[in-house]
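During the second half of the funding period, the structural biology subgroup turned its attention to how the target accommodates small molecules. The most pressing case was protoporphyrin IX containing FE, which had performed well in the primary screen but for which no bound structure existed. We therefore specified the complex as follows and requested a full 3D prediction, including the ligand pose.
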Amino acid sequence: MKLFSKLKSSFLLTAYKLVVGFERLFNKGVVLDFLSNDFVENPYKTYNSMRAHKPILFSQITRLHWVTKMEYAQEMLRDKRFSVDDRKYPIAERRRKELKKAGREIVLEQFENPSMLKLDPPDHSRIRKLVQYGFTNRYITSLEPEIKKVIEDCLDKIHNQDTFDLIDDLAKPLPAIVIAKMMGLPDQDLDKFQAWSEDLLLGVGGIGTTKEDIKKSGDAYEALITYFEKIILSRKDSPGDDFIGKLIQAEEEGDKLNIKEMYGTCLLLLIAGHETTTRLIGNGMFTLFKHPEQFDELRKDYGLIPNAIEEMLRYEPPVHATVRFASDDMSYAGKEYKRGTPFAVSIAGANRDPEANTNPEEFNIFRDDIKHISFGYGPHMCIGASLARIESRIAFEILFERFPKLELLDVNPQWGKNLIFRGFNDLKLKAS
Ligand code: HEM
């Protein structure tokens, strides 16, 4: 059995290398060789070469059309002709078959009742409207004292240590605790759902994903849905005033959202609410270490932090790509596409488009008029953007305040291997 899977993986690797070799020849040296260390280290170089060759480039190895030009990326995210609802297109049949074969009934049921992230209008607008009530600017700003307290508590725990892990000790727990509080989830479940959401992401955009990763991801998905089902059912009689309570009330009022959509919404908020902000804090801090003069400027004037965060988002975005489908046979940017054609809108590539930002390869916290789509664009634009901005701003302020001197222990930490999410699993710092 082991020999078989070894043979299978070496066969797949050989096939991968052949396709990459062929693409390199066919596209004049331009190829999305995502298994290469060079790509994991610096994917922007590849996206820049793709954009220069063709701003919409078909990559055989991913079976996706990659969009790396800002103008097209924004248009695709905004234009109704590009859809997010993969249930409607031929690609869904394979997913349904896979899930049935693997006996993943719960995942299949959720696939048929997706979260708003995977819904087109009118269902998207119906659910988004409900969720937006929980994310008004006034409410998010009112969370500041609580966010400060969470950060202080996290840093109190490492007070006597001269080294700590920015990811495990602050960047991971902070957004997870905040979103759990907003949703009204019990504190004692934190470790449990953090572990599940990490496992869940093993199946999303992973580079070199193994069979075990896929299994873990499916198990975690089921565990999370079962978890939310239990919580929601147990609270039906007294919904309360937190986010889940409000969703329960909306469901009971009738036609606003069904129970399956509620599970999907909770799952989306939990995952989107912390896996991304963790990476923003980690990627941002790492980038500052690589630009020590700007780090010094920031320490001197905290008023620069909000602009620095926008530049961090542009330069090292936590979400690198998102997918859209051609909703019909169409002509776009001078080419014909069939209904269901999948496009990878490269957030990372668009942010480095020289037509959008001058000197895009330069990290510059003083940059005016930063153009990025790191929170998306158009109708699906991130609902949690202001929360992520506040959490990361306060995190940087308190970190700089508490630790007048910080050093990166490993100057070349390993980037996670993923085509969708970019970040570190750990980032060890020395405090003095
Ligand atoms: C730095 C942190 C974050 C980044 C980089 C980020 C990025 C994104 C992106 C790129 C999208 C659009 C995806 C698409 O169009 O396909 C999105 C959507 C979304 N995000 Fe975020 N996000 C962050 C934080 C958060 C937080 C803190 C929450 C909630 C607590 C959140 C909740 C959502 C939701 C619900 C959507 C779906 C909106 C819709 O489909 O209408 N995000 N996010």
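Two results from this model are relevant to the next phase. The two ends are 52 Å apart (CA to CA). The first strand starts at residue 56 and ends at 59.
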